[in-house]
Amino acid sequence: MTGVRGLFQVLAEDLDAARAHDPAARSRLEVALAYPGVHALWAYRAAHRLWRVPSLRLPARLLSQLARAATGIEIHPGARLGRRLFIDHGMGVVIGETTVVGDDVMLYHGVTLGGRSLNRGKRHPTLGDRVTVGAGAKVLGPVWVADDAQIGANAVVVKDVPAGAVAVGIPARIRVPNAPVADRPRNEDPSELIEYVI
């Protein structure tokens, strides 16, 4: 998609993605003016275009740092982000240089798509389409999170996550839908729940 028309279509998709994922969003105008995740994404889109020209990589990095200062969201201009990404709240989100994100992905605040290596090659995660990453989750290294997977809040993912699975915990355990859960703890004494209910 190229040209001004294509640019406006992508920007409109970003606004509509925010409205689709956030029931508090009342209008495109509100999203355009008040959503830092959208602002960071728009700055990334400009910085990424600069990044693709080797002589403009420094301006690309400077633009990404300005966006970080303004929004609290750091997206390296070398990352490859798909369409209709929504970053909810956004503060503390970090997306590394070799990260690849598919379409219709949702990231909550405090998410890190980071590396575990000092190698210059692929060192950040790849997320498929329709992936949701919960608040505070860390997806580290060149792992693959397949389509429709969900990463629970505060999970630390260091291994691949299959399509449609849920990853929770530190380190993350993979739960596949409709698979038996053999180690689920059972609380036989209801009185033990009182301290959590009060």
From TrEMBL:
<dbReference type="Pfam" id="PF00132">
    <property type="entry name" value="Hexapep"/>
</dbReference>
<keyword id="KW-0808">Transferase</keyword>
<keyword id="KW-0028">Amino-acid biosynthesis</keyword>
<keyword id="KW-0198">Cysteine biosynthesis</keyword>
<dbReference type="InterPro" id="IPR001451">
    <property type="entry name" value="Hexapep"/>
</dbReference>
<dbReference type="InterPro" id="IPR018357">
    <property type="entry name" value="Hexapep_transf_CS"/>
</dbReference>
<keyword id="KW-0012">Acyltransferase</keyword>
<dbReference type="InterPro" id="IPR045304">
    <property type="entry name" value="LbH_SAT"/>
</dbReference>
<protein>
    <recommendedName>
        <fullName>Serine acetyltransferase</fullName>
        <ecNumber>2.3.1.30</ecNumber>
    </recommendedName>
</protein>
<dbReference type="InterPro" id="IPR042122">
    <property type="entry name" value="Ser_AcTrfase_N_sf"/>
</dbReference>
<comment type="similarity">
    <text>Belongs to the transferase hexapeptide repeat family.</text>
</comment>
<dbReference type="InterPro" id="IPR053376">
    <property type="entry name" value="Serine_acetyltransferase"/>
</dbReference>
<comment type="pathway">
    <text>Amino-acid biosynthesis; L-cysteine biosynthesis; L-cysteine from L-serine: step 1/2.</text>
</comment>
<dbReference type="InterPro" id="IPR011004">
    <property type="entry name" value="Trimer_LpxA-like_sf"/>
</dbReference>
<keyword id="KW-0677">Repeat</keyword>
<dbReference type="InterPro" id="IPR005881">
    <property type="entry name" value="Ser_O-AcTrfase"/>
</dbReference>
